[in-house]
UniProtKB/TrEMBL annotation:
CDD domains the record matches: GGDEF, PAS
Protein name per UniProt: diguanylate cyclase
Cytoplasm as UniProt keyword: no
Pfam family, one: GGDEF
Residue span, GGDEF domain: 347-485
Catalytic activity: 2 GTP = 3',3'-c-di-GMP + 2 diphosphate
InterPro entries in the record: Diguanylate_Cyclase (IPR050469), GGDEF_dom (IPR000160), Nucleotide_cyclase (IPR029787), PAC (IPR001610), PAS (IPR000014), PAS-assoc_C (IPR000700), PAS-like_dom_sf (IPR035965), PAS_fold (IPR013767)
Any one Gene Ontology molecular-function term assigned to this protein's record: diguanylate cyclase activity
Organism field: Paucibacter sediminis
Residues spanning the membrane: 12-31
A biological process from GO: regulation of DNA-templated transcription
Alphabetized SUPFAM superfamilies for the sequence: Nucleotide cyclase, PYP-like sensor domain (PAS domain)
Domain PAS: 181-236
Residue stretches making up the PAC domain: 258-308
């Protein structure tokens, strides 16, 4: 049996050697422990830094108004902000870090959160994944409720994908409203009955609606880019350039927005009367003029015809058909007018009531047609006897006539009466059955002259003329008698 060796049996040098080795081992262990502890501390510090940086990153992306998402090179979800989750609220609660983009997308599609995917889910997914793998230009995605996001994706250096989504609903809706109103405007312009021509600030035509092409007779390409003066007739054609220049210099412009008549020109050279109204449309980019033009040519022609017809009607309603003298209606109007004027001004007025003598006998003897001819001849004599502009010769009825002589006193009236009888005598119209004037047609005239006064009236005055005529008849006819009703002027 081998006896046990005790330290006391070892030589002293070996003991010292062992002790040294032990001390060295202890030192080495202590060093290793310190290194391990330092490494652990470093790791903890790095982890803290990483957590702090991630927290800062999250804080940073949460401050973005846009939705933010990031997927790694394996297309697994790394990080996203709440704005991204708010865009797809139904599927977002199921998102987990590390989930694949395709699965996230399937969740969105299944929840019906992308409008164009509804009803064609697989096809849309395939197309969307292709875009996601090779992102290009930003694009618009429609979400339910006519909401819109603008999506921009790009690849990171490590092969991941960053997605930025901006809610552009308001912008898109504004554009939609604008497009709707533009479409409405286009429809109105193209179907409008009035011509609408737009020009730039230099007067070059930018657009013309179908009514404008019809009105002016041009094709659209013959008008576009041309000076709008080609549609104008003189004098507007020559002055338009100057007017436009002055308008651009801030002078003139008084015609803007006001409808006015305008001389236009058809392609054929035919003049057109149009109504023109021009408005200025000024944006930051440019200045345009919009002209609304309606054709007045037909209306103008119709107006002239109507005016002629009205004049004709007025003439007919105030003219005696046989003699073409004023009729009784016009006489009574003028008599009232002159009466009132005389009251106001104190001017004298005369009235001659003229009657053909023995006209019944004339008719009976020569026939009614000859009687008509004789009345026409008498009318002509009377007309020639009273030829001042203010005189009025009227057929009062039957074979009776009235001469209304404004601003004429008794002497003037007598002179006119004498002229009537002499002119008729000059015609020497035979009236074989008349016992007067050597078998010629003669006239009896009752006259009234004076200044109208209050308390009397035009009709009383006419009655006095009738009385004077009656006296002329009873005194033997073929004469003129003055009624003593007014103070002689
Ligand atoms: N041809 C024709 N005759 C007319 C017209 N208007 C009235 N007369 C006629 O004129 C005649 C007027 O006759 P009276 O009123 O008796 O008067 P008179 O025969 O002229 O006799 P005194 O006036 O007394 O001299 C009638 O025979 C009417 O028929 C007309 O438009 N044409």
């Amino acid at each position: 049996m081998t006896p046990a060796v005790t330290p006391a049996d070892l030589p002293a040098s070996l003991a010292w050697g062992l002790l040294l080795a032990l001390l060295l081992a202890l030192g080495w262990l202590a060093h290793g422990w310190r290194r391990a502890r330092d490494a652990q501390r470093q790791c903890e510090a790095l982890a803290r830094t990483a957590r702090a940086e991630r927290a800062e990153l999250i804080e940073g992306i949460e401050t973005l108004s846009e939705a933010y998402s990031m997927f790694d090179a394996d297309d697994r979800l790394l990080i996203y902000n709440q704005a991204f989750a708010r865009l797809y609220p139904a599927s977002a609660p199921h998102w987990r870090p590390g989930m694949r983009y395709e699965d996230l997308l399937r969740g969105i599609i299944a929840a019906g959160e992308v409008t164009p995917a509804i009803g064609q889910e697989e096809a849309w997914l395939a197309e969307r994944m292709q875009m996601h793998r090779a992102p290009g230009e930003p694009w618009l995605q429609e979400l339910p409720g006519n909401r819109w996001v603008r999506i921009y994706e790009r690849k990171t250096a490590s092969g991941g994908t960053i997605g930025i989504r901006a809610d552009v609903t308001e912008l898109v809706r504004t554009q939609q409203a604008l497009q709707t109103s533009q479409a409405q405007l286009r429809a109105i312009i193209s179907t409008a009955g009035v011509a609408i021509v737009t020009t730039d600030a230099e007067g070059r035509m930018r657009s013309a609606n179908p009514a404008a092409l019809r009105l002016f007779g041009y094709e659209l390409d013959e008008m576009l880019g041309q000076d709008v003066a080609m549609l104008m007739d003189e004098p507007e054609r020559s002055t338009h350039g100057h007017y436009l220049l002055r308008f651009r210099q801030g002078q003139g412009g008084q015609l803007m927005g006001r409808a006015r008549e305008f001389n236009a020109l058809h392609k054929s050279g035919r003049p057109l009367t149009v109504q023109l109204s021009v408005s200025e449309v000024r944006s930051e980019a440019e200045q345009l003029f919009v002209a609304v033009i309606s054709d007045l040519t037909e209306r103008k022609r119709f107006e002239i015809e109507l005016q002629h017809a009205n004049e004709q009607l007025l003439r007919l309603s105030t003219t005696d058909a046989l003699t073409e003298l004023a009729n009784r209606r016009l006489l009574m109007q003028r008599l009232e007018d002159e009466w009132r004027r005389g009251l106001r001004t104190g001017a004298p007025l005369s009235l001659l009531l003229v009657d053909v003598d023995y006209f019944k006998l004339y008719n009976d003897h020569y026939g009614h047609q000859a009687g008509d001819d004789a009345l026409v001849a008498v009318a002509s004599v009377l007309r020639n006897s009273a030829n001042r502009p203010a005189d009025l010769v009227a057929r009062y009825g039957g074979e009776e006539f009235v001469l209304l002589l404004a601003q004429t006193d008794t002497e003037g009236a007598r002179a006119v009466a004498t002229r009537c009888r002499e002119l008729l005598a000059g015609l020497a119209l035979a009236h074989e059955l008349s016992p007067l004037g050597g078998g010629l047609l003669t006239l009896s005239i009752g006259m009234v002259s004076g200044v109208p006064y209050r308390g009397s009236s035009a009709s009383q005055w006419l009655a006095q003329a009738d009385l004077a005529l009656y006296q002329a008849k009873s005194q033997g006819r073929d004469r003129a008698v003055v009624a003593p009703v007014f103070s002689e002027a």
